[in-house]
């Protein structure tokens, strides 16, 4: 080779060799790429299953929460005085009054005056880029004005491409302000020549949900004809309690947070439900069902549905479901029909009204009694209804309002619009994964399109790797605008532009420079690492269940890898390809067996190294820490951060009995005692949870890890 | 004797489970079918190193009489099980891979230029598609010198190959 006078035989030999060499290299390379592809899909599956498994918890918790909401009246200590009902807007105004708030001279953030001007909007964007915070006074003022504006809007916004040549539709943002900045940078700000539709889920999970709301509401008021907002399932205070928005607001606005939250609640319920472009493209956040009725949706009093929860399990054929309208801290005293504010249908006639909070001792005693009663009921119901679904058991404990059929049907309409997901199979069935809405098939889509002469649907609600995805024969488009949703590099965000021809044009992006500089392999590795960390955490949280499952197959402390996969799926029920994932989770002996006890211990060590608390209790708390947090926030209705030790203890008992968790009375007592709390028997649970988090982060190893790790329960 | 048959049975059953799992990762409609274009990924991620020609042979066995563009698990499972049991499509050892690169490196400089790499990969053997070529270049090429140090690249491909 390399001789200038290579003989033809030599050349021929080289050609043959080059061919063989090429085939070899190509073979290797293709196998490498396939392996990467498999890893990428598995990682995606991990994140999705964990995310939806959390939402599954919501099914159980929804009813429990509504029970709590119903039961616990506000504390009566002076600053904590909350009016019982916002039957009239005037009362809401009085409570969330901002005019008396003084803005100190030292405040350097933007100062808003109404009516808002484009300059205010750009000033706000600039301020948020500089990480400034808008003064509570302006936040409240903005919210009041937004509410006023939204009230006059119909349930379904109508947009026409003849006025605005192009319409840009954005999907879920979930508090990721950087993505919104990126969209504005690439696509331009809203303006008389730039129409935007934002399709819900502006808040929760990401850490700048409030900033996003402020920006969107500001543009809404500045350009009311060009900015359209749809409500998403996360524009709901019940969901916010769980997924971080409530916490974000309280952390950023320690004094006025409550007012802001209250106001937001009354803004969310006024968000329109859908948008129609040229009467041909329907934009809703979640999806549709086989009973979706646009005419009815147009007429519904949308503001009455603050939070739509599920009562009894709906049957396939019979959709007469009793839905409870939850109204947060309010109990309507007058008939809700003509009222402006949040309406509640909670019956007042329920026995054992909670005593006033003036006497904490009395309250504690009452809590204890009620808790005991409930635990007894739990037990009785479990005995009686063994054959029935779990959900029926829980929902029976909820104070069910006897809503008339039309009322519950209307409620269902909104529920379906906000929570449904498309599925490939035909038909329409309950969305058991989310606990609300349906799975709707291509036939359902086809019917709706035909019925209302539509061309296609645009929805969001589901994270897509490329930021968008078609299904149902390109009749349903999912658009998702929160890039790197699970982890840096996990997915792109996208927005879609429609001109008069209604042909969609997509723009994709990833709001993190790091993601761009990484190669495909590096990106996949990084996301994968994060996914597996989350998965190992989940495995750890089920240690005792796993241990029992393994023992059943046990032969001297060892099980086969095949058994491992079967057992793990039976416990975790995440529907993951465990055999594919096994190499990253388990190191097995040469004979293909696993010593499961030491594997479980290794898992524990990874988690325990961050904690001082005993592992048994740790496991239970781990699994439920975000649920616990949510419950605390409900109990602590005035968001003061304090609940009594009694309340904490009883709530835990109630919660654990609802969720069929073993009661660990002593464990809880020890745990609580090991944390400093006021000698008057109050727990500053913010500090408690914070301490829990800090301990977790305090190890050097943890600090070295990338800051943004996927935590299925993260905010 | 019994023990041996037991473990053999377990192995086949286990193999079938593995195949089904891998298959289902690509089964988007949850109806036991995958797009025919994904079969390559499935077969390879199960540890096999077929050439494109071998893959086509396999496809011929699992396709429907009237090709629909979809492969059904029912047909795929027995064929793939046989492949794994018989350990077909095994990789050649790493040093052979190195020799392959060295054979193409006529000047023996320890690297291939971008032009050389593109020429061999898109004109020889079972040519790459443009996408495949771009992907390989993005990871393998040193942007400053526009060359691929193949020894380093091999380590990347090997280490990652669990």
Automatic annotation (TrEMBL), chain A:
<keyword id="KW-0479">Metal-binding</keyword>
<dbReference type="InterPro" id="IPR029052">
    <property type="entry name" value="Metallo-depent_PP-like"/>
</dbReference>
<dbReference type="InterPro" id="IPR004843">
    <property type="entry name" value="Calcineurin-like_PHP"/>
</dbReference>
<dbReference type="GO" id="GO:0004722">
    <property type="term" value="F:protein serine/threonine phosphatase activity"/>
</dbReference>
<dbReference type="InterPro" id="IPR018247">
    <property type="entry name" value="EF_Hand_1_Ca_BS"/>
</dbReference>
<dbReference type="InterPro" id="IPR051134">
    <property type="entry name" value="PPP_phosphatase"/>
</dbReference>
<dbReference type="InterPro" id="IPR011992">
    <property type="entry name" value="EF-hand-dom_pair"/>
</dbReference>
<feature type="domain" description="EF-hand">
    <location>
        <begin position="623"/>
        <end position="658"/>
    </location>
</feature>
<keyword id="KW-0464">Manganese</keyword>
<keyword id="KW-0106">Calcium</keyword>
<feature type="region of interest" description="Disordered">
    <location>
        <begin position="319"/>
        <end position="351"/>
    </location>
</feature>
<dbReference type="GO" id="GO:0051879">
    <property type="term" value="F:Hsp90 protein binding"/>
</dbReference>
<dbReference type="InterPro" id="IPR002048">
    <property type="entry name" value="EF_hand_dom"/>
</dbReference>
<dbReference type="GO" id="GO:0030145">
    <property type="term" value="F:manganese ion binding"/>
</dbReference>
<dbReference type="Pfam" id="PF08321">
    <property type="entry name" value="PPP5"/>
</dbReference>
<dbReference type="InterPro" id="IPR000048">
    <property type="entry name" value="IQ_motif_EF-hand-BS"/>
</dbReference>
<dbReference type="Pfam" id="PF00612">
    <property type="entry name" value="IQ"/>
</dbReference>
<feature type="domain" description="EF-hand">
    <location>
        <begin position="663"/>
        <end position="698"/>
    </location>
</feature>
<dbReference type="GO" id="GO:0005509">
    <property type="term" value="F:calcium ion binding"/>
</dbReference>
<dbReference type="InterPro" id="IPR013235">
    <property type="entry name" value="PPP_dom"/>
</dbReference>
<keyword id="KW-0378">Hydrolase</keyword>
<dbReference type="GO" id="GO:0005506">
    <property type="term" value="F:iron ion binding"/>
</dbReference>
From TrEMBL, chain B:
<dbReference type="InterPro" id="IPR011992">
    <property type="entry name" value="EF-hand-dom_pair"/>
</dbReference>
<feature type="domain" description="EF-hand">
    <location>
        <begin position="14"/>
        <end position="49"/>
    </location>
</feature>
<protein>
    <submittedName>
        <fullName>EF-hand calcium binding domain 2</fullName>
    </submittedName>
</protein>
<keyword id="KW-0677">Repeat</keyword>
<dbReference type="GO" id="GO:0097228">
    <property type="term" value="C:sperm principal piece"/>
</dbReference>
<dbReference type="GO" id="GO:0005509">
    <property type="term" value="F:calcium ion binding"/>
</dbReference>
<feature type="domain" description="EF-hand">
    <location>
        <begin position="92"/>
        <end position="127"/>
    </location>
</feature>
<dbReference type="InterPro" id="IPR002048">
    <property type="entry name" value="EF_hand_dom"/>
</dbReference>
<dbReference type="Pfam" id="PF13499">
    <property type="entry name" value="EF-hand_7"/>
</dbReference>
């Amino acid at each position: 080779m390399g001789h200038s006078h290579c003989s033809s035989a030599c050349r021929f030999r080289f050609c043959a060799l080059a061919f063989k060499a090429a085939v070899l290299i190509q073979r290797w390379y293709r196998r490498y790429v396939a392996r990467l592809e498999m890893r990428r899909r598995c990682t995606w599956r991990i994140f999705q299953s964990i995310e939806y498994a959390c939402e599954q918890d919501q099914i159980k918790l929804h009813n429990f929460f509504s029970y709590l909401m119903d039961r616990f009246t506000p504390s009566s200590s002076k600053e904590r005085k909350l009016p019982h009902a916002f039957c009239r807007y005037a009362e809401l105004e009085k409570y969330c009054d901002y005019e008396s708030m003084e803005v100190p001279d030292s405040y350097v953030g933007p100062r808003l005056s109404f009516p808002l001007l484009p300059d205010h909007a750009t000033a706000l964007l600039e301020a948020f880029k500089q990480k400034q915070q808008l003064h509570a006074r302006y936040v409240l003022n903005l919210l009041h004005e937004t509410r006023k504006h939204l009230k006059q809007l119909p349930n379904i916004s109508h947009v026409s491409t003849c006025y605005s040549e192009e319409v840009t539709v954005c999907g879920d943002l979930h508090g990721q302000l950087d993505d919104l900045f990126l969209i504005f940078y690439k696509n331009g700000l809203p303006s008389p020549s730039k129409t935007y539709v934002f399709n819900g889920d502006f808040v929760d999970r990401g850490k700048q949900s409030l900033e996003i709301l402020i920006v969107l509401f500001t543009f809404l008021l500045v350009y009311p004809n060009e900015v359209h907002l749809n409500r998403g399932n996360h524009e709901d205070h019940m969901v916010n309690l769980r997924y971080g928005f409530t916490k974000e607001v309280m952390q950023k606005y320690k004094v006025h947070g409550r007012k802001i939250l209250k106001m937001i609640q009354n803004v969310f319920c006024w968000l329109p439900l859908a948008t129609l472009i040229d009467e041909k493209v329907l934009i809703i956040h979640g999806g549709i069902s086989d009973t979706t009725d646009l005419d009815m949706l147009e007429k519904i009093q949308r503001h009455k549905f603050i939070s739509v929860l599920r009562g009894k399990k709906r049957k396939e054929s019979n959709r007469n479901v009793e839905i409870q309208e939850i109204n947060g801290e309010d109990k309507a005293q007058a008939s809700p029909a003509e009222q402006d504010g949040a309406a509640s249908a909670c019956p007042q006639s329920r026995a054992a009204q909670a005593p006033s909070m003036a006497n904490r001792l009395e309250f504690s005693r009452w809590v204890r009694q009620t808790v005991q009663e409930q635990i007894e009921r739990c037990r009785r119901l479990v005995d009686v209804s063994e054959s029935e679904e779990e959900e029926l058991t829980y929902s029976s404990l909820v104070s069910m309002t006897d809503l008339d059929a039309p009322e519950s049907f209307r409620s269902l309409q909104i529920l379906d619009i906000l929570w449904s997901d498309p599925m490939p199979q035909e038909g329409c069935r309950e969305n058991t994964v989310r606990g609300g809405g349906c799975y709707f098939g291509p036939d359902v889509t086809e019917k709706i399109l035909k019925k209302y002469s539509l061309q296609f649907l645009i929805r969001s609600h589901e994270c897509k790797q490329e930021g968008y995805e078609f299904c149902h024969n390109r009749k349903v488009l999912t658009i998702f605008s929160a890039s790197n949703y699970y982890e840096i590099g996990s997915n792109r965000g996208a927005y879609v532009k429609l001109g008069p021809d209604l042909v969609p044009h997509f723009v994709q992006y990833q709001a993190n420079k790091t993601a761009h500089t990484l190669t495909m392999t590096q990106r996949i590795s990084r996301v994968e690492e994060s996914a597996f960390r989350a998965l190992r955490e989940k495995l750890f949280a089920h240690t005792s269940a796993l241990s029992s499952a393994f023992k059943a197959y046990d032969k001297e402390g060892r099980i086969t890898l095949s058994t491992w996969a079967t057992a793990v799926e039976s416990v975790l029920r995440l529907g993951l390809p465990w055999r594919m994932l096994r190499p990253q989770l388990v190191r097995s002996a040469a004979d293909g067996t696993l010593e499961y006890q030491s594997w479980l211990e290794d898992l524990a060590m990874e988690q325990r190294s961050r904690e001082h608390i005993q592992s048994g209790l740790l496991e239970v708390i781990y699994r439920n820490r975000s649920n616990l947090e949510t419950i605390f926030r409900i109990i602590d209705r005035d968001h003061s951060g304090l609940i009594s030790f009694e309340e904490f203890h009883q709530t835990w008992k109630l919660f654990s009995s609802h969720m069929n968790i073993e009661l660990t009375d002593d464990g809880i007592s020890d745990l609580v005692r090991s944390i400093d709390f006021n000698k008057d028997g109050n727990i500053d649970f913010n500090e408690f949870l914070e301490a829990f988090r800090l301990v977790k982060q305090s190890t050097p190893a943890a600090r070295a890890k990338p800051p943004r790790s996927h935590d299925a329960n993260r905010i | 004797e019994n023990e041996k048959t037991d473990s053999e049975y377990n192995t086949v059953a286990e193999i079938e489970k593995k195949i089904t799992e891998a298959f289902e990762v690509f089964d988007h409609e949850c109806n036991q079918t995958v797009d025919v274009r994904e079969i390559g990924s499935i077969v390879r991620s199960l540890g096999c190193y077929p050439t494109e020609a071998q893959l086509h042979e396999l496809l011929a066995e699992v396709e429907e009489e009237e090709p629909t563009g979809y492969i059904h698990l029912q047909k795929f499972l027995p064929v793939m099980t046989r492949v794994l049991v018989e350990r077909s499509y095994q990789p050649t050892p790493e040093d052979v891979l190195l020799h392959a690169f060295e054979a193409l490196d006529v000047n023996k400089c320890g690297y291939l230029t971008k032009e050389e790499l593109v020429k061999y990969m898109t004109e020889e053997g079972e040519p790459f598609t443009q996408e495949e070529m771009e992907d390989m270049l993005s990871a393998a090429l040193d942007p400053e010198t526009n060359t691929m140090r193949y020894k380093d690249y091999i380590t990347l491909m090997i280490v990652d190959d669990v």
